Amino acid sequence: MLRFRRFRPLVVFVVIALIVVYQFGGSSTTWRTSSTEQRPSEKEDTAALVHSKPRPQVAQQTKKLDLEVPAATRTQAQKTPPAISSVKRPVDKTPASSTTPVSRVDEGILPASSSDAELVEGIEGGQGRVEVTALASSTPPVHWSKQSEHYPVPSRSIIKLPTGKPKPIPKIQHTFKTESPAAKKDREDKLNVIKGVFRRSWDGYREYAWQHDELSPVSGKFRDPFASWRATLVDALDTLWIMGMKKEFEEAVKAVDEIDFTTSPRADIPLFETTIRYLGGLIAAYDLSDRKYKNLLTKAVELAEILISAFDTPNRMPQTYYYWRPSFASQSHRASNRIVMAEVGSLSVEFTRLAQLTGEDKYYDAIARITDALEEFQDKTRLPGMWPTYLDASGCRVPEPISPADVPLQAPLDRASAVKDIPLKAEDPTSTEKLSPEGNRYTPLALPDPIVFKAETGIPSLIPSPTEKLSPEGNKYTPLALPDPIVFKADTELPSSNPATEPAATKKGATTLQKRQLDDTEAVIQDSDEAPPISTALPTPECKEQGFASSNSGMDEYTLGGMSDSTYEYLPKEWLLLGGVVDKYRSMYEKSIKVVKENLIFRPMLPKGEDILFSGKLNVPQTGTGKLEAENAHLTCFAGGMFGMGAKIYDRPEDLDIAKKLTEGCVWSYDMTNTGIMPEAFHVVPCESTKGCEWNETEYWEGIDPNAEARVTSYERQMLNFREQMAAASTWYEEQMAAYAAATPLSKTAAGEITALATPTAVAELESGMEKRKRQLDADSDGVATQQKTPSRNLMVEGEMEEAEGPPTPVQSEGEAPFETTLTKPEFPAIYTPSVPLTHEQYVKNRIQEDRLPPGVVNVAARGYILRPEAIESVWYMYRITGDAHWREAGWRMFQAIEQHTATVYGNSAIDDVTKTSPDLNDEMESFWLAETLKYFYLLFSEEDVISLDEWVLNTEAHPFRRPT
């Protein structure tokens, strides 16, 4: 029977839909007209309108909107952008990486904004992103300003720059003889080739990245990994002077004045990188040009005033990443408790030279305090004499919190007497309360039994009560460190502590809760009538002053390589720069070198038995002995030059032999690869002694495949597991097949196919879950078993109870069997079959071939080359110290290999894998390519009095500072 009330919602919906269609159905013409009238001009690209959605016509505002906006009427002085080079630049260049990196602004994470000058240059020069710069141009740049120091050094406590006549220092450079005309011509030809490579890279930077940090030499774009202060320009100033490119030098010096060190799109200033590249570059250019260009020193002081602010900490240790924005810099800060050792230990040469040039003792005071801290910590490390790669420079040691185990325990009353005083309810449970299987009432919290101490001894009782659980061996389970049990008072049923020690207020019926705090103090929430509440706030731990400390609780790493290198390098160089008048730099160097020779330097096992040395890593745990990692890294290759210079100035002739072998090790590392270029890092098998080492192929193969036995053992264990699984699966499958065969009598179907009909047992099992449902469906169907029809469900329709029609009638033929099913034949389970591992020989040969391992190398940990200078640096030192032409020959091979595989149209690029025959270019050219690598190659073939080691000290970025006389 059709009931109208049932369909009322549908009728309402239809009426509304008809009204909507009638109202808006004829408005398409109006939309199209409105859309057409709003087009700005007929010349606009129609393709942009094809896919645009029409917008409904809106009412036009006829009254003029007149608002007063003070900011719009305020006049502001326009900023003049820096002069743009007249060199033609491409208009479609985009930065290789974002010029607006996401950085930390004060205490939040916000994208840094560019200055207006950079925005104008980015749009006009085509090197910035217009959509980004247009948005950022409305925000003026933030500028650094000098803040009042929170921890100033009293004038009487400033460590003064050492003065006085320098001590006599032994000669470093070899005394060279006059060269022949043929040798001179060959040297000058090579010199010109090196200069030509530098000029190509400099021109590429000048044309495509002049106002940025670095050039992307493949694409002709730019990168700003530092502070957008033209890192390559400042870094290459002294190289321009040394190569005689005076016109380019003067142009770059003028461009230095355009650098604004008080603002940057980067929120933090990396202290180490900024000091060695920018501050060192400015000071060296000033020294080299005979102090003619005063603006170089002025800009160096401007930068140093910003950097010195990073030292405003309680212990005057610097923040190695200085957040310079005033709103953050004005606050009090500490140095980090985890800093890279080289980043704090490699500032001395630059700040000392600046103090010498300006007469400002505060620059020397800043680094002298670091030296004192290093000296104090040198003998307290896990490897006395050296420093770990990570340091805690905060000067703050937080006392260890007192754990509950450290608090003396008071012996409570005997267990029996304590239990009998617990005022639990004794009456019978109500009808709604649950009982345990033993007839006891369940308590609200099921806590384990407490550890009970005997009054006379304070030793935990091990005699279980009747209700306590026992282990399978009959011992009582003893909880480890649990608080006092919670018991329930008869009058309030609120948790309480041990009744034997509860306060009197609780015994009187007061509501009191004792809570265990993290610092093992009791915070009692008392009734307001008794006393005011006691504060539950935890006390702030106090700092205990300390010097440098290790920041690793597990393993400390000791190395001359990355994260440590220049700290050791600067010890003899600072001694030279101070004229030898401060003895601590010599003693610290000699102490560290002794430990290096005993623990880090090793001879690699090689097929041809080359007599070379590497300097590896030593990983030292808190307890126990350290483990040598037989690595040779490109960053460690500076050590040959350091050993050689230390051997000369400190009269250590045995160290000169080590210096030669360390440098030869890096030359070998170049010659071993397909490109003739050394990888970033690789591993070898170390010899037991540096005196001699025979090639052992078995040991070499074990170095490549140290897990051969473990691999075989793992396979055998997997096969045993596989056999057990196969046996179990086979048994199961046979049982299932037997049951299947017994339960499937065969019958012919009308089509002649053999079908397995369900047996009565199977039908009964299948019907068990469906029979009741089927009978219910039959009973509810019209015309079938009407005498069994049950009352139908009621449905609520708009507040009325409606009789619902029953479920649909199932379609069924008369005479058809109620159920007929076909059993599925069981399938054998899928079981993982272990793969047969490669043999030791197969694995090793595959590794050598696939990883392109040079003979003697067991692993290439880092395959790239980013135009690093450390190897050629030591080659140059060895040539200047020994005068052996062998080093020039080795250096020329290195240069040719680098130029062949890294040259691009605009400069030279880092490569991805030196073991390839044709490596891929990474489109990155670090500023040290011009500041260091090409400078060392050029100095190797220049006349020996250019940057003589007896007159100059080079910082770790190859910037030469004049030694005092």
Automatic annotation (TrEMBL):
What EC number(s) has UniProt assigned to this enzyme? 3.2.1.-
List, in alphabetical order, the GO biological process terms annotated in this UniProt record.
Answer: carbohydrate metabolic process; ERAD pathway
Q: Polar residues bias: where?
A: 784-793
Annotated S-S bridges: 637-666
Which enzyme class?
A: hydrolase
Record's keyword annotation contains Hydrolase: yes
Pfam families on file = Glyco_hydro_47
Taxonomy, superkingdom: Eukaryota
Q: Which InterPro entries does UniProt cross-reference here?
A: 6hp_glycosidase-like_sf, Glyco_hydro_47, Glycosyl_Hydrolase_47, Seven-hairpin_glycosidases
Active-site residues (renumbered): 273 (proton donor), 565, 680 (proton donor), 870
Question: What's any one GO cellular component for it?
Answer: membrane
In Swiss-Prot or TrEMBL terms, this protein is called: alpha-1,2-Mannosidase
Q: What is the lineage of its organism?
A: Eukaryota, Fungi, Dikarya, Ascomycota, Pezizomycotina
